[in-house]
Design brief:
alpha/beta, Rossmann fold, 8-stranded mixed β-sheet, 11 helices, 8 strands, globular
C-alpha cells in the first residue's frame, strides 16, 4: 500500500469556534486559514488507503538533509489482531502536512495520524500532541512505532480512535526562547499551543476542547510537554512526560536565558509556585537504568509527592534513555492517553 503524502500550505484568515478562539486570544492577528480548496478536493478524491494493519504507518517522510539520523528501535511492539467489527476493516492514514508559521517565520511540518474510519465518517476525535526529543524531528515518534501501535490498539478495541499530531520542533525545547540578542527569541511554545493546535482544529475533525487534548513528549519533549501543560491548562488537560530531560538555565543552552527569565517555564518552579497542576492529569516515567536523566526525574517525582501533586509514575521498567525504551512502552502511553481523554 502506498503512503499518502499531502503537503498543505496555509494562507489568509480563518475563523475557529468560540472555545478555540478564546484559547488563542489575545493575539487576534495571528490566524491560520483552512487548507486550500484544491487540497481538500485531493483528499476527498484520493484512493482510500487499505485496511492492512499497521499501514500506512510503515512509511515516514524522507529525512531533511540538515537533520541527524534518528536511530530506529531494535523492535516495535507487535499485536495479534482481533479486529472489532466496527473498525476492523476501516482505513487509517498518515498525512505529512506543513503550514507556514508566522511565529517561527517559516514552513513547519506536522505528521498527522488519522484513525481507522476517519475518511468514511463524520466523527470528531481527541488529539494527542506528541513532541520529539532535542535531537529528533517530527518523524521521531512515528519511527519508534507510535502510530503503528495506536492503529493496532484501536483496531483491537484497546484504545479509542484518536488523532496523533507530531509537530516539528527544530532543537527548540518547545518553549518561548529568551529575547535576542543572546538568543534567537523564537516563541516555540506559542507556536505549539496556538498555531499547531489551531492548524489541527481548522483542518481535521478534532474535538476542540481541553478535555479532548493531550500533550506528551520524550526527553526534551517530555519537559516541553510539562511546560506547555502547566502554562496552558486551558488548552491541554492531560500531560505525559516520558523520560523528561529536565534542563535549567545553566548557560549551556543560550535560548534558556537567565534563571529569572526561565522560571516562568520551569516545571519545578511552576509546580511550587502555581496551582495549574490541579487542572491536569499527569504522567511521568523513566527507564530503571536511565543514568543520563534518571536522577533529576526522581527528584521531580519526589518534589511532586511532597507537594501532593497527583500523578502516575513509573521507574521500574527496564531500559535506558533510548529508542528501545520509548518504543517498547508506546502501548502503555497510548492506553493511558486513551483512558484520560474525552471522546465524542
Amino acid at each position: 500500500m502506498k503512503h499518502l503524502r499531502i503537503w498543505i500550505t496555509l494562507f489568509g484568515v480563518a475563523t475557529l469556534g468560540a472555545f478555540v478562539a478564546s484559547c488563542l486570544a489575545p493575539d487576534t492577528t495571528m490566524q491560520l486559514a483552512p487548507v486550500r480548496e484544491e487540497s481538500l478536493t485531493a483528499i476527498s478524491r484520493a484512493a482510500v488507503p487499505s485496511a492492512t494493519p499497521t499501514a500506512p504507518c510503515d512509511v515516514v517522510p524522507s529525512l531533511a538533509p540538515d537533520r541527524p539520523t534518528i536511530p530506529a528501535p531494535s523492535a516495535i511492539p507487535q499485536f495479534t489482531l482481533s479486529p472489532i467489527p466496527t473498525l476492523g476493516t476501516a482505513a487509517s492514514d498518515l498525512v505529512d502536512a506543513k503550514f507556514y508559521s508566522k511565529l517561527i517565520g517559516k514552513e513547519m511540518n506536522v505528521l498527522v495520524y488519522l484513525p481507522p474510519g476517519y475518511h468514511t465518517s463524520t466523527q470528531r476525535y481527541p488529539v494527542i500532541y506528541m513532541l520529539s526529543g532535542f535531537g529528533g524531528d517530527y518523524r521521531e515518534w512515528a519511527i519508534y512505532g507510535l502510530c503503528r501501535v495506536l492503529d493496532a490498539l484501536v483496531r483491537n478495541g484497546q484504545a479509542q480512535p484518536m488523532i496523533l499530531a507530531m509537530p516539528e520542533g527544530a532543537f527548540s525545547y518547545w518553549f518561548n526562547h529568551a529575547p535576542a540578542p543572546g538568543s534567537d527569541g523564537k516563541p516555540y511554545g506559542d507556536y505549539v499551543w496556538r498555531e499547531v493546535v489551531q492548524f489541527m482544529d481548522t483542518n481535521y475533525r478534532t474535538l476542540p476542547r481541553r478535555e479532548s487534548r493531550a500533550i506528551g513528549g520524550l526527553s526534551a519533549g517530555g519537559q516541553g510537554a510539562l511546560m506547555l501543560g502547566l502554562t496552558h491548562p486551558e488548552v491541554f488537560s492531560t500531560v505525559g512526560a516520558h523520560s523528561p530531560s529536565f534542563r535549567g538555565a545553566d548557560g549551556s543552552l543560550p535560548f534558556f536565558g537567565s534563571p529569572e527569565y526561565f522560571k516562568q517555564y520551569d516545571p519545578a518552579w511552576l509546580i511550587e509556585n502555581t496551582t495549574t497542576w490541579k487542572q491536569l492529569t499527569l504522567w511521568m516515567d523513566m527507564g530503571h537504568e536511565d543514568k543520563q536523566w534518571g536522577g533529576v526525574i526522581q527528584e521531580m517525582h519526589t518534589r511532586w509527592e511532597r507537594l501532593g501533586v497527583p500523578h502516575e509514575f513509573q521507574d521500574t521498567w527496564p531500559g535506558v534513555h533510548d529508542a528501545d525504551y520509548w518504543s517498547a512502552h508506546t502501548p502503555d502511553y497510548l492506553r493511558w492517553y486513551s483512558r484520560n481523554l474525552e471522546g465524542e
